[in-house]
Design a protein that fits this description.
The structure is a homodimer of 391-residue chains. Chain A is α/β, with parallel strands linked by helices and 391 residues long. Chain A folds into 3 domains: 75 residues, Arc Repressor Mutant, subunit A (Orthogonal Bundle); 143 residues, ATPase, nucleotide binding domain (Nucleotidyltransferase, domain 5, 2-Layer Sandwich); 155 residues, 2-Layer Sandwich (Nucleotidyltransferase, domain 5). Chain A contains 13 helices and 16 strands. In chain A, α1 packs across α3 and α2 crosses α3. Chains A and B meet through α10 and α11 of A and α10 and α11 of B.
Amino acid sequence: MTQAVRHDSMRARNLEVVLGEVSRGGPLTRAAVAERTGLTKSTVSKLVGDLVDAGILAESGLTRAGERGRPGVEVVLSGNRVASLGLEINVGYLAVCLLDLAGEVRLTLRLARDNRGSAPDEVLAELQVLAAEALDEADRLGFTLAGAGLAVSGPVGDGLLLSAPHLGWQDVRPGEMLDLPVPVELDNEANFAALGEVWFGAGELDFLYVSGEVGIGAGLVLDGALFRGAHGLAGELGHVVVSPDGPPCRCGGRGCLEAYAGQEALLAAAGGPATIADLVALVKGGDQRAELACAEAGRALGLALASAVNLLDLDRIVLGGIFAPLFGWLSGPAEQILRERLGRLRGSVPTVTSSRLGASAATLGAAGRVVHRVIAEPGPFLAAHREAREA
Amino acid sequence: MTQAVRHDSMRARNLEVVLGEVSRGGPLTRAAVAERTGLTKSTVSKLVGDLVDAGILAESGLTRAGERGRPGVEVVLSGNRVASLGLEINVGYLAVCLLDLAGEVRLTLRLARDNRGSAPDEVLAELQVLAAEALDEADRLGFTLAGAGLAVSGPVGDGLLLSAPHLGWQDVRPGEMLDLPVPVELDNEANFAALGEVWFGAGELDFLYVSGEVGIGAGLVLDGALFRGAHGLAGELGHVVVSPDGPPCRCGGRGCLEAYAGQEALLAAAGGPATIADLVALVKGGDQRAELACAEAGRALGLALASAVNLLDLDRIVLGGIFAPLFGWLSGPAEQILRERLGRLRGSVPTVTSSRLGASAATLGAAGRVVHRVIAEPGPFLAAHREAREA
């Protein structure tokens, strides 16, 4: 290792340590940061100066007596200068949010739109309009954009949407079709929604987030981080076997969970209401066929979740997407199956709860990932900031 | 952090760095270690001296021209002074192995014994006899024992064997019932066997190890480490749902994989041979009923694995335990199901291979975990060594 490389990597590491202390424990004076990190006060002052300069930290305006007797100015994460964009293409809507570095949502836009069978460039042009509105707002507020995340309803590997069967898309790179001033990180909506739950929902760090939509996906969160599998395709709960000779599924198999509890199967079993909102109205009105359809879907969900718990040893399951508004009619039958199949072996069954975020989970997770990366590893953002200013 | 605490933690960290370089890249001279780690030569000399003194490193006897022009003596992991013990209680046998720090097996002992319905203290007394033989051998060879690992056929949490249904045990602490001069680490045999495969088998770092015995367990290895779940109970592949209304299972559910492909179900379906060796003889002789039973078990295995791959995104599956000798009759039907259910969605299906280690995987993994921990984190072993010598 050369001296210069060692110095750069030490600086990067120290930036992470300093920003980590302030983001977890702030507001803090520079002296308190030095005390907590074991770094010298002059090193801390230099690093805090750079972070304030780039808009990541801000002086809170408060002063307090420092640990060594001198009053010091406290610094906190700045909510006014750096932001990120969360974007989502779902089967039934497009959505965008603007999130600041302190975790406040500054703007949300949502456009109901039936994207089934639409060409990618057509859908992306619509999303671009929403994104442009969010960029204008970011500009107006004086934010520097740190990045963007785009949630899509299909498996993603290395920036490529492998397939979105309900949209009819295959091998599309929607992130590259947008005209944005920052790179776009693409991921599956269940993955982003699971991260949204970690950061903006109940705050749990270990759970399986189940995203019920036309398809059914899941995001497995372990110690606050996503489990992605060998190719980023983990969490395909929709194709877990419920019954090996059940109805055919678009994956080529039979009796997958999606064939019982996916949106289309569920609406058909309920006698054909047009939307989930209509189905909710039916079950609220006591419609027996609709109630039975939800109970059947709940039992199928329970069987797939029993397999998932046996493999993954989960304590907590969060039901999101269409399962959130139907929670009252699905969760009882699902939990009954979990008790029957897991109780004797494990002594306990996982908690099943409804997502607090509903349909905004994925955009929050997409924008949140950018914000969390800047905080966990501020070096690249600082370097880009320096370059932009020198240019 | 006080000065002393900081010094100790820095020393521990530097020990890890130095030993890591030698274990990955050795034999190395002290000068080469200093060059690679960025530590000073005097620090490296002191740390290497302590590691040689404790028997973790040894001078190889070779010298070579050092990077700075001076010839230096090379050091390597020592295979002659520190060892660990691997122990296993399975339904049909007891086993012990003695493993040195350089990864050589110095002794293996195996006793066929039907442990079904045996009282824990009776089985542990038998295991103690085997362990004592291994301890004598370690003594004779001049080894210091660094620790022991004990593999058991049931779910384990915090040193407690929660249940071993095929033995009829519940809430037993077998590690504490042994009289050994070192602490015993308890874990599920599928977990230890999976680690055995990483260190002594095909050397893959990402796979699902499937342990077929009377029960069916699995150890999920991710980047060379075990995935354990919320309570260490992950990998219960035997209770993944194959068919929701299938034959009853001892877990309280119906149609679990174990009810189709566990040893007892398999032998019964094959017309009742007494042992797996007898079943292997039947299929080798072309017995149709036995072949059909294996094919049915293979299809059930394929269905459970399809669910596992959908959830975990696995590239590789290793079949061990009774599935290894039956691999030729099970794997074809299992792979057929995997192709049908995974091919369209993923484009590829995971590789299915047979374990190379057979029945010794679990003891190797149990002993190997101790050895790998000493190498990854030598501080505690060095401290114990120093205390023992000062006493």
